[in-house]
Design goal:
Elements (H helix, E strand, L loop, with lengths): L1 H19 L5 H23 L4 H17 L3 H14 L7 H16 L3 H18 L2 H17 L3 H18 L2 H17 L3 H15 L5 H16 L3 H18 L2 H18 L2 H145 L5 H19 L2 H13 L3 H8 L6 H11 L4 H8 L3 H13 L9 H6 L2
Length: about 525
């Protein structure tokens, strides 16, 4: 119930104070912003005329920071990028690292975390190249903050620890203060409040006695942690310290944050009167901050626009005389160019027609020559196939005739063995053995298979693929001889079989092939 009442009064006060405040802050800041921008822009224009890329980059950097402080983020990004372009042909310099980190911080402020991450990683690479420990520590700390915003707490802590080591080596109290505050913020998000308090206290220790916005922020962080751990008296104490510090340094944002924290603290304690009082003060300051930010942004935008418009007008006036003269020259040149263009176009058309005609004739000649060449090549291939087929058939018949002669001779010599001459028998037996050995050699058959595959390279693979069952080596031989259109008698002679055996083998081969009953086996094999 207390929270509902607090929320009601918070909303009511917000609307009432927003309506009540009609103060126009534009006149209060217009003069200062205008002078600052004019000074920075004058310096930039002066440096742009020089050839020193580093000086140009520094001028762009200062103007970009001014635009960022006044909320003109697009122009700030432009100025930082112009600064980077000015350094393209320059040696590595610290200003390069400043520009890269500024772009990363700006995108981090705009919550473009992916883009911010890219710039900080580039900043780390450049700092390593230049062996600049300070810029390396800064880039790693900001990259850790970027990971924290994306809730990648493990990566964030690792980077903050690396930055902490670098700042320790550099003995930089300011850097150690920043990193400890960042680590405390991570542990606060992880709800590890003991570690958060430890690092916030270290940040306060390294900060020293200087009164500024960072100290107020550390006090506010300590107040937040104590409030979250329900130690409300310490929470109120540190929030009051933050308020006093913010007032001393004139930071309205930190003052508003302190009022809000105090309002939440007393609301949790149930002291609604105090809570509403601080809430009212928070709303007043918050509205003033928003108006001030809007005013600065509007003023800066208007000044940038006016300055650029004046510069453009000056350039227009300077160029006006040149333009008038150039227009006259261009008019004369246009007339001459028009006449020459018509003349050249006419000559071009004539030349193009002649060229097109010649190209057509040439293409027709080339096409005819290619067709003749293709026909000749096909005729040569056809003749080669016929010659190879004839050679294969001749070779097959040669094997058949040789085997028949040798077989008849072996038969005749066998009969001679019946004679009683013992010496003759021994010699004839040796001769018969030699003939049979010659008949059993597979070299000629291997030569035959090699020649067959040259003419029909895919035959064996195809017949094995279409066969219903695995074909034996003898069945493959029979199919190749049938493929050459040899008859059973010739095949029997080549394979040293009887014609009946060949017929049986043909029948077995036919059963293993998907052939129609009425189709001729040799004709089917020739179709494979």
């Amino acid at each position: 119930m207390q929270k509902l009442v607090f929320l009601f009064f918070y909303t009511l006060l917000s609307f009432s104070l927003a309506i009540a405040q009609g103060v126009n802050l534009l006149d209060l800041y217009n003069h200062t912003v205008s002078e600052s921008f004019a000074s920075l822009n004058t310096n930039l224009q002066k440096e742009l005329k020089s050839k020193d890329g580093i000086s140009k980059a520094k001028a762009h950097l200062k103007l970009g920071l001014f635009c960022q402080e006044n909320g003109v983020f697009v122009e700030a990004i432009n100025q930082f990028n112009y600064g980077l372009m000015s350094l393209e042909n320059e040696k590595q310099d610290n200003v390069l690292l400043d520009l890269i980190n500024c772009l990363g911080k700006l995108h981090l402020e705009l919550k473009n975390y992916r883009t911010s991450e890219v710039y900080f990683k580039r900043g780390i690479e450049e700092a390593l190249k230049q062996e600049n420990k300070l810029q390396l520590a800064i880039a790693k700390s900001y990259l850790g903050a970027c990971f924290e915003k994306q809730k990648l707490y493990k990566e964030a802590l690792q980077l903050q620890d690396e930055s902490l080591i670098l700042y320790t080596d550099l003995k930089s109290d300011n850097g150690l203060c920043i990193v400890h505050e960042n680590i405390g913020s991570i542990y606060e998000d992880l709800e590890q409040y003991d570690l958060a308090l430890e690092h916030f206290n270290k940040a306060l220790k390294y900060h020293g006695e200087q009164v500024d916005s960072r100290k107020a922020n550390i006090y506010n962080n300590l107040g937040d942690v104590y409030r979250k751990t329900k130690v409300f008296d310490l929470g109120a104490e540190f929030s009051n310290r933050a308020l006093e510090t913010a007032k001393l340094c004139g930071d309205l944002h930190e003052q508003a944050s302190s009022f809000k924290d105090l309002a939440e603290n007393y609301q949790l304690l149930g002291e609604l009167d105090k809570a509403l009082t601080y809430l009212e003060q928070f709303i007043i300051l918050d509205n003033e901050n928003q108006q001030l930010q809007s005013t600065n942004q509007a003023t800066a935008l208007q000044i940038i626009y006016d300055t650029k418009e004046k510069e453009a007008q000056i350039k227009v006036l300077v160029q006006k005389g040149k333009v008038d003269y150039a227009q006259k020259i261009m008019l004369i040149a246009s007339i001459i160019s028009g006449v020459l263009l018509v003349l050249f176009w006419y000559l071009y058309i004539l030349k193009k027609k002649k060229q097109t005609r010649n190209e057509t004739i040439y293409k027709q000649q080339i096409l005819k020559a290619e067709l003749d060449k293709k026909s000749l090549k096909e005729e040569i291939l056809k003749r080669e196939v016929e010659v190879k087929n004839a050679s294969l058939s001749t070779y097959s018949l040669h094997i058949s005739q040789k085997n028949k002669i040798l077989s008849d001779l072996a038969h005749t010599l066998t009969k001679c063995l019946d004679r009683n001459n013992i010496d003759l028998k021994r010699k004839l037996a040796a001769l018969i053995q030699e003939i049979n050995t010659n008949l059993s050699q597979v070299q000629e058959w291997e030569e035959f298979v090699t020649l067959f595959q040259e003419i029909h390279p895919q035959y064996i693979e195809r017949i094995n693929k279409v066969a219903n069952d695995n074909l034996s080596s003898s069945e493959l031989r029979l199919s190749m001889l049938l493929r050459l259109n040899l008859n059973s008698k010739e095949i029997a002679s080549i394979l040293r079989l009887t014609t009946d055996s060949v017929r049986v083998s043909r029948y077995r081969l036919r059963k293993k092939l998907p052939i129609d009953a009425k189709e001729e086996l040799s004709q089917y094999l020739r179709s494979i």
